[in-house]
């Protein structure tokens, strides 16, 4: 799973809890996209989560 190169968001681990309170492992994956962004005067393809894209933390090329 890719990590966001801007904020570092990645996998989160926890438990699914059923109605009878039985627990099983769960993984939540961040919504990470590969996008072309302007980095250091040039264009580069980086992994960015959708929250960083929406907030304008990176400028798309």
Topology:
Elements (H helix, E strand, L loop, with lengths): L11 E6 L5 E6 L3 E8 L2 E8 H6 L6
Antiparallel strand pairs: 1-2, 3-4
Can you summarize this structure?
The chain contains one helix and four strands; from the N terminus they run ββββα.
The structure class reads: mainly beta
> Helix content range of the residues, please?
under 10%
Cα end-to-end separation: 24 Å
* Shape category: rod-shaped
Mean pLDDT level: 94
Q: Would you mind describing this structure in some detail?
A:
This protein has 61 residues and is mainly beta. The protein has one domain. The protein has one helix at residues 50-55; strands spanning 12-17, 23-28, 32-39, 42-49. The strands form two sheets. A two-stranded antiparallel ribbon has the order 1-2. A hairpin with a 2-residue loop joins strand 3 and strand 4 (42-49). The longest helix is centred in the C-terminal third of the chain and has 6 residues, at 50-55. The mean pLDDT is 94.
Give structural attributes.
61 residues; mainly beta; two-stranded antiparallel sheet; 1 helix; 4 strands; 46% strand; rod-shaped
